[in-house]
From TrEMBL:
Upper taxonomic lineage: Bacteria, Pseudomonadati, Bacteroidota, Chitinophagia, Chitinophagales
Molecular function GO terms recorded: DNA-binding transcription factor activity; transcription cis-regulatory region binding
SUPFAM superfamilies recorded: lambda repressor-like DNA-binding domains (SSF47413), Periplasmic binding protein-like I (SSF53822)
Protein name, per record: Transcriptional regulator, LacI family
UniProt keyword annotations, A-Z: DNA-binding, Transcription, Transcription regulation
Record carries keyword DNA-binding: yes
Amino acid sequence: MKFDDVITIKDIAKALNLSTSTVSRALRGRYEISAETKKMVLEYAERMNYRPNLIALSLKEQRSKAIGIVVSEIANNFFSQAINGIESIAYNRGYHVIITQSHESRDREMVNVQHLVSRNVDGLLLSFSCETTDISYFQQLHEKGFPMVQFDRVMEELDTHKVIADNYQGAFHATEHLISRGFRKIGHITSTNNLNITRERLQGYKDALLKHHIPYDEELVKHCNRGGMIYEEVEEAVESLFFNKSKIDALFTAGDRLTTVCLSALKNVQNKYKQVGFIGFTNTNLADLFTPSVSVVRQPAFEIGQRATELLIEMIESKKPITDFEQEVLSSHLIVRDSSKPL
């Protein structure tokens, strides 16, 4: 087959010695097809660059075959990797994705969501902005049966499927790691308390201190309510930690953008980066290129995106309303490098 030829379900079926109906069901993730067959079909389809005929599918199933994605910003390493995971599932299942960015603005988030709904997307993948507290519009959509799945930044009051990283354990292990290396005055830079990830990571930080009999000092915790979107906000937080009476010897940051911006701010605050222990939540692939290389808590962003998409498509294609929802928690991983070496 030539590179520019369009591969069809019939081509896949012939190549794998399967029926076209089996291939079609496997591509749609139907329960009656074995996991082994699904894997074989999906891998072959991806290798051959198969793309479903979205127009034909949407006419047949009376759906737009589009999924709306709502995130704070694509430039965030976590979200860019999560979107890759979303697309890896969506396109093989015959769905197009429409990506929107809130830039941590609740108003922009609302405009984006209303636009997506007006465009008749089949469902939404939601990760809320720092400013979002009023979710009444989302509750209304949910009550009408509109398919939604939350990921990463979730609202407990909104009873839908949720897919998140283990924020508490990630923060606990990061803080305990710094303690094990001899650090005792550990500063914590985090985002707004509106976000579940802020609260869960702060609790992990607190409990690690408690376990090792280190008093919690609220002066060592700084909230950057825009989540690192405003450089000056992060720089001010860093400066205040170094120049207050409880001078820190290590720093733990609780977000992807916060971590990368904080590394820059540390260099501008009397070049403190090389003088303190450091660890942060980030999925950047450049962490080992810094000097010293950066210890990080890495989240399974790609897998979170994949699982959230699988759950959403199950809701969209279900023959009856889904009323039982689950929260799936995927493990984060601590990667130790030179920035947290012993005192």
